[in-house]
Please model this.
Amino acid sequence: NDWDFSTEGRERQSRRMRTFADFEKDHGRSVVCDFVCPTQATRENFNADITIWMDTLKEGRFEDTNKMFERPVDVDFVIEEWNEKNHENIAREILKWKK
Model:
């Protein structure tokens, strides 16, 4: 019962997501996590192997998230437009990058 959208709650959730992802990786499974990490601290807590920033919105629908949002500076891929085809190109690029 400690789910909330405070700064501390978001950091707690990023650590939970990391624990879950690490468990799955430790058991030989591939993991894709999709969640909002609006601050540098939440991104550092999660410590992703690959970071893809969906930079497709000027502003989100939740004002509290907009207020705390910190633009990522260290990402592997930036997606600035989402359409019917670019996910295929992005997947190819990620596969090339991982080799």
Observations:
- The two ends are 41 Å apart (CA to CA).
